[in-house]
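A reminder before we start the practical. When you read a complex entry, don't treat the lines as separate problems. The point of joint prediction is that each chain is placed relative to the others, so the output describes one connected object in space. Small molecules and nucleic acid strands, if listed, are placed in the same frame. In the example below there are two entries. Take a minute to note the order of the lines before looking further.
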Amino acid sequence: MKKVVDKNELKQYLKDGISIHFGGFMVCGTPEGLVDLLIEMKLKDLTLICNDAGFPDRGIGRLIVNGQVKKLITSHIGLNPEAGKQMNEGKMEVELVPQGTLAERIRAAGSGLGGFLTPTGVGTSVENGKQKLTIDGKEYLLELPLRADFAFLRGSITDTIGNVYYNGTSRNFNPLMALAADMVIVETEELVEKGQIKPEDVMTPGVLVRYIVKEEKK
Amino acid sequence: MITDIELAKTIIAKRIAKELQDGQLVNLGIGLPTMVANYVPENIMVTFQSENGMVMMGPVPEKGKENMDITNAGGQPVTIQQGGAFFDSSFSFALIRGGHVDITVLGTLEVDQEGNIANWVIPGKKVPGMGGAMDLVTGAKKVIVASLHTEKGRSKILKKCTLPLTAKHEVNLIVTELAVMEVTPEGLVLKEINKDTTVNEVISLTDADLIIHKDLKIMEI
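Here is the predicted structure of the whole assembly.
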């Protein structure tokens, strides 16, 4: 299976209205080259799932500024004023999810779980519309899994069969998202031959990855 | 009253640092809470977590030595200390929700005498989102609020929060430049005051009802 492709070969799969899990935390670990591709393609009505709204000039924040996002599922939009503005004007739907719940909803989707119970959000507006269960005298919210059509990840080192290693804190949501989408695309800073990453160091096994594109840091 | 805001913040950070104990795992929020790391007592080892995926977070690197793959929860470059570890977001929040974090220190918009905290949204005005705050406040064993006592002359410590809550009944300790207050089943107990204030001044600057501890102390900083 050929996995390493030119970015342009991905265009045939990407359409208006798709949902995408975007790796990264305040743009650390966000695939900026794939953001560029979506901007170049002028795709509309995207549903993005990402820890935060990035910055107006970095990360998925650029897609928001460009008016390409219909719905954003995220934990934080505070450093991208445009996201708050579009939300208040009704131009973009924003679902705010506590960060740990967001991570676990993605993990649940990728792990075949029908949901999970968390105490986070009990007694706050986060519980609105959710089922509440009491286990051993403690209240929990039932949170549901969160899948997407695509997962766009940023790897530091990736081999030609898709095994990924992430530097530092760039790992964040990336390995969780690799399990929770129909098609997983990794943008990598460094591309190496199969076997060059020690098995112990593989953080996302290549079997989960369909396409790899190389994109050096800007 | 202490009108010098930088001095006030330093007093708060120094006092909270005295709450830290050897071997604890601690999460500090962005801003004022981060200053606590500067005053950790020398004879103890405290491990700082950053919820974006590391423990043993170190200080901000020198100019020119930034590695943008090592950042804090605010996206700013930081360092990792010897013995540290990186992990993914699911593991990071397992540490938080799973009760492995001993202390979380965070700032707030409002806090009240029942231990309720509101720090993630001002409806119609500012909607930054909760980030990791709801999980941290719910999961950490001890929740310490670091806050100036008043803002624009108004008490930040209320009888009842008016903004949407981050969590209900989760705050344990409130530290301001003027006072240390503990949330108890009986109510909010004033345990310590700054040497430059009086009980009457603290009461007059606090909206919440205060129970004066019978063994009221001067804040050690």
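Discuss with your neighbour: The first helix of chain B runs from residue 5 to 17. What might explain this?
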